[in-house]
Amino acid sequence: METVNQINFKKHRDLGAIITDAFQFIRQNWKGYFGTIIKISGPALVVLIIALGYYMMSIGGMVEGVSTGNDFSATDGLEMILAVAVAIFAGIVFYVLLQMSSLYYIKSYIQNNGVVNIDEIKQNVYQNFWKFFGFGVLMMLIVMIGAMLCFLPGIYLGVVLSLGTSILVFEGKSVGDAISHSFTLIKDHWWETFGVMIVVGILVGILGMVFSVPSMIYQMGSVMTNIGQDDPTAMLGLFSDPIYLGLMVLSYIGQFLLSSITLITTVFIYFDLNEQKNLTGTIEQIDSLGTL
After folding, report:
1. What's the pTM?
2. Checking CA distances to 18, which of 25, 39, 233, 244 falls within 20 to 30 Å?
3. Residue 194: partners with Cβ closer than 8 Å, 6 or more residues away
4. Is 222 a domain residue?
5. Is 160 among the domain residues?
């Protein structure tokens, strides 16, 4: 039996309903939803933040060293490169885990009628990590090749393949079948899918700016303070300012978590297209009536 406030994912929705229900899902389940994401992807996020922080502090130290006449050694350069490499790898792992924990949370939510099983989510994430990782790499290569050909094919392919992760989770298909099914599912519905993603992208971008406001205000205050100083590198001292770095970290975390709204939207789009093509939700409702 469904809980009273449970959102039914498996039905046809228009643009307004997709956006409204995505935010309603967040509003009703934000504590468990974001808690699950942080528990699963949090360690990778911590590594990412530490690597980024070290890189930014290294830049600050380099600038300070140049201004005082100290040489920038090869070891310092190697450490910066290593920090960037660690940050890139941790960022990729974090985003894959964020995607997986978000989608498997919704799957558990649907299967258990609004009651989420955290252990089930963790098991699915850890079992299918490399499958998702491979899909992400392949998707990135396909979109990059499409963009190199004429840019517009890259946009087209990016919208199509955005459905792939939902297909991997809710249909359990292989990477190749997920890519193929993405084209089948979105056929004759590309423009409406693109429209939803553009609108949601704008909304998420605006909300993400809120998290950037504190660091921007602090940065402007620092710039105004250092105007008129003889040292032209003084304003670059922000890179070694712990307060500024802390505000930047909060900004990154907020924007990363907000990106999950886009993931939730793609799930609603997936079920909307699936309902239009296959009437899956309608058939399940009919079958459930027959068992009463």
Report:
1. 0.85
2. 39
3. 155, 159
4. yes
5. yes
